[in-house]
Amino acid sequence: MASENLGNSENSENYIASKYRFVVLGIFMLMGIITQIGWITFAPITQDVADFYHVSQNAIVWGLTGVFMIAYIPVNFPACWLIDKYGLKWGVGIGVILTGVFALIRGIFARNFIIVMIAQIMMAIGQPFVLNSFTKLAANWFPEKEKATASGLGTISMFLGVIIGMMLPEILNIGDNMENGFPPLLLGYGIASIIGMILYLVFIQDKPEHPPNAYADKSKALVTTGYKEMLKIKDFIYLLIILFFGLGSFNAITTVIDLIFDPSFDSGIISGFMIIGGVFGAIIISAISDAKHKRKVFLILALVICTPLNIALILIQSFWVVNMLALIYGFFLVAALPVGLTYGAEITYPAPEESSNGMLMMLGQLGGIILLAVPPAVLMYVVAVLFGIASVLTFIIKDTPWHEAQRTLKS
Predict the structure, then answer these.
(1) Shortest CA distance to 157 belongs to which of 71, 253, 300, 33?
(2) For the purposes of burial, counting CB atoms within 10 Å of the CB of 62, is it exposed (0-12), middle (13-18) or buried (19 or more)?
(3) What pLDDT, in 10s, does the model give residues 3-50?
(4) From residue 354, how far is each of 136, 241, 341 by CA, in Å?
């Protein structure tokens, strides 16, 4: 089906960008949304879900939400290998199928905690296949000037999923009517997941007929070789630490947000403002990053601005001021992720994009797991310290000159 659209393309220097890339990106974004809804479903109503299943809060935090971060660690490497071996459609398709099938099972058996937990584990296994794919998607389908933007839109899908998962239970007042509202909510998510899976399997193609950029035009190292070479690059090690702190903090905050803020505050609304800010930030900052061919400055900007905001968010007593600060916080912090992932893929070339993407995302999940052990009452203070350290590291890393990288790739 994609081959019919490949002739309708755009020229960019010596490379050809297929217009079908927007179809591929759109479906990947849909699966990013669905995957993240699966992760965050229970976070905004943690206590209500615990009461519904007659289990502890910890059983929900770790058994239904935190399991996504835990599963990422062992699954990341085989997911990268399978994506490298089988390409975007079937490598990532493994995760898409796991997500679709088990989201539906979760919805059908919504009243059974054990089945729901097993379904969450299987969906968690599928998550790395989807989240590790965005930089490879950008490299396979998009011209150089659009790579960070494409990665940014992929990242936006992740956070749109978090917005929906966080805010829909609040909008529907699920917490006040768990018995009649919660099972249909899970079933609705399951049906949406199956539809997304079908669209993916029908319409996704691995790559276009012609390479759209210099990175796609060159052969890649094997995944195993790529990991060895990546870990020899000092700036990539620094980037791993930055994502360990930055993405790890975001994951932990999102997971226990219902336990961080004053009980009189609506945590779902606060997280919604944070993610809405992130959506705009990822679009705007990724586009500027592509236009200016710069990555480092935007990582610095995000961490320097967000470090003090961690403290302000929990000290300020006005709910609407907190929401506005959450909007700014999300604008800069969320936008740093696609820029960081793109930077990681560029400085580790010719390692496969899914390898750098996967390792960075894995460190973010590991950081989130560790930070979940921090009491929610002091989590934001700890995050502020970590952001301060990460800020220093962003000043140390070096931007790879874009034009020099292009000359190297084309030589």
Answers:
(1) 33
(2) middle
(3) 334 334 444 456 777 889 899 999 999 999 999 999 989 988 888 999
(4) 6, 18, 10
User: At 16, which helix (H) or strand (E)?
Assistant: strand 15-18
DSSP conformational letter for 11: E
**In whole angstroms, what is the distance from residue 180 CA to residue 279 CA?**
32
Report yes or no: 16 and 10 within 8 Å, Cβ to Cβ: yes
Q: Prior bond to 263 cis, omega within 30?
A: no
Cα(216)–Cα(143) distance, integer angstroms: 9
- CB of 261 closer than 8 Å to CB of 270: yes
Pick from 352, 325, 333: which is nearest to 155 by CA? Answer: 333
Q: Can you read off the two tokens belonging to residue 365?
A: 């999940």
**What superfamily does domain 16-410 belong to in CATH?**
MFS general substrate transporter like domains (1.20.1250.20)
Specify which residues 15 forms β-bridges with. Answer: 12
Task: List the chain domain ranges.
Answer: 16-410
Residue 315 has pLDDT above 60, yes or no: yes
